[in-house]
Structures are given as C-alpha cells and as structure tokens.
Amino acid sequence: MNLPNALTLFRFVLIGIFPYLYFLEGLENNKVWAFAVFILAGITDVLDGFIARRFNLITKWGKLMDPLADKLMLITVLICLFIEEVIPLWAILIIVLKELLMILGAAFLYRNRKIVVQSNIYGKLATFLFYVAVTALIFKLPFANYIFGVAIFSTILALVKYADLNFRKGN
User: Fold this and answer.
1) Helix 60-83 vs helix 30-54: angle between axes, to the nearest 10 degrees?
2) Cα distances (Å, whole numbers) of residue 62 to 41, 45, 111
3) In angstroms, rounded to a whole number, what is the distance separating the alpha carbons of residues 133 and 35?
4) Burial class (CB in 10 A: 0-12, 13-18, 19+), 141
5) Letter string b/e over residues 22-46, b meaning 16 or more CB atoms within 10 A of that residue's CB
6) What are φ and ψ of residue 101, in 5° steps?
7) pLDDT tens, 64-84?
8) What does the angle CA 57 – CA 112 – CA 101 come to, to the nearest 5 degrees?
9) Rounded to two decimals, what is the model's pTM?
10) How far is CA 160 from CA 67, 72, 154, in A?
11) pLDDT tens-digit readout, 9-19
12) How far is CA 106 from CA 28, 102, 161, in A?
C-alpha cells in the first residue's frame, strides 16, 4: 500500500473518531477535539491527492476510496450537527441526494462512456465552503447559518457543473 492510499485509509478511521469525540461527555473541549479530527481529515485529503499526483502514485483503489472517504466524513459530520439540532434535516437530504447523484452519474459515465469524473473548481469550492461552514457551526459563530447556506448552494452548483461538463464529454 502506498502513502496516499494509507492516508485515505487513515481518513476512514477518522470518520469513526469524529462522532465519538463530538458527543463524548466528560471530555473538556470535546467539540474542539472533534474539530481537530475534522481538520486532520481535510489535511490528509489534500496531502494524499498532492502526493499521488506529484509522485505518480495514483491507483484505482485511491480514485474510488478517496472520494468515498470524503463523502462519508461529510455525511458523518452533518448527522452529528443534525442530532445536536444545529442544522435541519433538509440540509442533510440535499447533500446526500447530491452525493448519490454524483456517485450514480459517475458510475454511469464510467460504465457507458469510459469517462472518469474528475474534480473541478466548483467541487473544490463547495468542499472549502463546507469546511468553513462546519467550523462556524461547531463553534456557534453568529454568521454560521449564512455560510452554511452558501455551502449548500455551492454544492448544488457543483452538481450542475459536474453534470454539464461530464455529460457533454460523451456527445
């Protein structure tokens, strides 16, 4: 197993640690510790992609598991925020629906047209805004809901752009 894949595998471990720390009573600053895990997951996501591209260590396993780890972390964090009544259910449903559509669309394009869906600036922006929004929500900053709204909008925009760019490739 190469380093980028090991970092992705480590992110799967972090997915289980985040909710444990987030809801752990008796641990002082448990939300801060959970946030640190969330940030560590983000850092390892950036690192594994950089290392894989820079040193030509891209694998099929990594192409599949890296985005899966990202999506599972995203959904885990959202569920924790929902349980604590920080965000509404509809927000989770929008993001889960978007992720399902992305997975199904990518599978369709790969299977029928041999197109591998690549990340683009819209997806990266949506991910960045999600990290900013989660930070604001965890620390209960006054503008958190606005940032979260922008993150939701950017997620929808990213889906539309992915669909537009990738389905046009097949024509």
Assistant:
1) 160
2) 15, 11, 18
3) 12
4) middle
5) beeeeeeeebebbbebbeebbebbe
6) -65, -40
7) 888 889 889 999 999 999 999
8) 80
9) 0.86
10) 18, 21, 10
11) 999 999 999 99
12) 42, 6, 13
